[in-house]
Write a structure and sequence with these properties.
By secondary structure, this protein is mostly helical. It folds into 3 domains: about 180 residues, Tetracycline Repressor, domain 2 (Orthogonal Bundle); about 45 residues, Arc Repressor Mutant, subunit A (Orthogonal Bundle), CATH 1.10.10.60; about 130 residues, Tetracycline Repressor, domain 2, CATH 1.10.357. Helix 8 packs across helix 17, helix 13 runs antiparallel to helix 14 and helix 16 packs across helix 17. The radius of gyration is 23 Å and the shape is globular.
Length: about 400
């Protein structure tokens, strides 16, 4: 008896399989380090089959970002009427989809401006229910301050998800919810003042150092932050460094990645240097943590380009180049963690480290997404929000 050979059927969720594989590969390796052939191989299909679903890699990136936005905002539409319940639900979903936010924060710049704006609008619409609940809870606050608190909550949650592996899920959700509530309930006169958000930002100077090497670092760091590491060539860096010739760059750096490593190392060394001063001058763990926070805010505001590169472009370095940078990052977080456990002995080391990551991301995230020079008290606001996440007093300790 003969049987008709059945034709293989395409899975109904093939497109979602592709999006899931691409999301993980973009997150782990960076958009520019992943090819369409790599994604097709991961899904187990041919290249032509992949192109039946997506026109190209940029089209696929947009689909992964839409998926990330939808996954991270799905809890916002649950119809929760009170703030604690809603924050708890958002925290749980953020923890479950802990890596979705990485794509949104790092890879959005690889899309054309109109697509970026479309995705931002989608994200703003997705988080609107939480903004509305915060506004209802804090009717005395200006609308832009409500937005500031909303972004602080989301930035703290986004950091705690990926770094929560050492803590039980229930405890992590509890910590996230407590921090979210503390931020939303923040009381300080600077939060009640209108900020004049329609003012144009103050222009910043573009003077370069006299030293050729320093000029290269300054110009390259600015370009990496504006365009992304992969989109910047050595000729671009040479032009930004007071019109140097491309080949002359190699007298100072072995290549583009060496420039990025130097910029990131410089930034981390500055933070660790300031931290050592905080440890020398403070009398208590809380005082040192206050000083470290203020130093971190200052460096972030004054050297934000390097911070942006530190956050997003390190993925394009080789493992060997990343290792010393990651070690310095780990040392910086470890010092903060020790200070926080000294100030709050009720926290375990893992819990304190999680809160430190949340604090750092609140400062980094708000500096990166908000016009720094538009809000008159922005530096003080960032310090205030950082203290709230850390559980420090709202006002600085005397003498610090």
């Amino acid at each position: 008896m003969t049987t008709r050979r059945q034709k293989a059927t395409r899975p109904r969720d093939r497109k979602q399989q592709i999006v899931a594989a691409a999301s993980e590969m973009f997150r782990a390796s960076g958009y520019h380090n992943v090819g369409m052939a790599d994604i097709a191989e991961a899904v187990g299909i041919s290249g032509p089959a992949l192109y039946r679903h997506f026109r190209g890699k940029q089209d696929l990136l947009q689909a992964t970002l839409v998926d990330a936005i939808d996954k991270t905002t799905e809890a916002f539409s649950g119809g929760y009427s009170d703030l604690p319940t809603m924050l708890g639900a958002v925290a749980a979903v953020t923890l479950e989809k802990r890596h979705a936010g990485v794509l949104w924060e790092r890879e959005l710049t690889h899309l054309p401006p109109e697509q970026r704006q479309e995705l931002r609008s989608r994200y703003v619409a997705g988080i609107e229910p939480l903004r509305a609940v915060i506004a209802k809870t804090r009717p005395e606050l200006p609308a832009d301050t409500v937005d500031l608190l909303l972004r602080a909550v989301l930035a703290s949650f986004a950091a705690m998800g990926p770094h929560s592996g050492k803590i039980a899920t229930r405890r992590t959700v509890e910590l996230m919810t407590d921090i979210g509530l503390a931020l939303c309930r923040a009381e300080d006169p600077i939060l009640r003042e209108a900020t004049g958000g329609d003012q144009p930002p103050v222009s910043r100077g573009l003077l370069l150092p006299v030293s050729r090497r320093e000029a290269v670092l300054a110009g390259a760091t600015r370009l990496f932050a504006e365009r992304g590491y992969d989109a910047v060539g050595m000729e671009d860096i040479a032009a930004a460094a007071a019109g140097m010739a491309g080949p002359s760059l190699y007298h100072h750096f072995a290549g583009k990645s060496a420039i990025l490593v130097a910029a990131l190392t410089r930034c981390l060394e500055a933070m660790l240097f300031d931290l050592s001063a905080a440890l020398d001058l403070a009398e208590t763990h809380g005082q040192a943590l206050d000083a470290a926070l203020r130093s971190f805010v200052r460096i972030n505001l004054e050297h934000g380009d390097a911070m942006s590169a530190l956050l997003s472009e390190i993925v394009y370095l080789s493992a060997e180049e990343r290792q010393p940078v990651r070690r310095m990052q780990h040392d910086f977080v470890a010092e903060w963690t020790a200070l926080l456990t000294g100030h709050r002995p009720d926290l375990s080391a893992a819990e304190a480290e999680l809160i430190v990551h949340a604090t750092i991301n609140v400062v980094n995230g708000l500096r990166h997404t908000t016009g720094v020079w538009i809000r008159p008290a922005y530096r003080d606001e960032l310090i205030l929000l950082g203290r709230i996440v850390l559980g420090l007093p709202a006002q600085p300790h005397p003498g610090v």
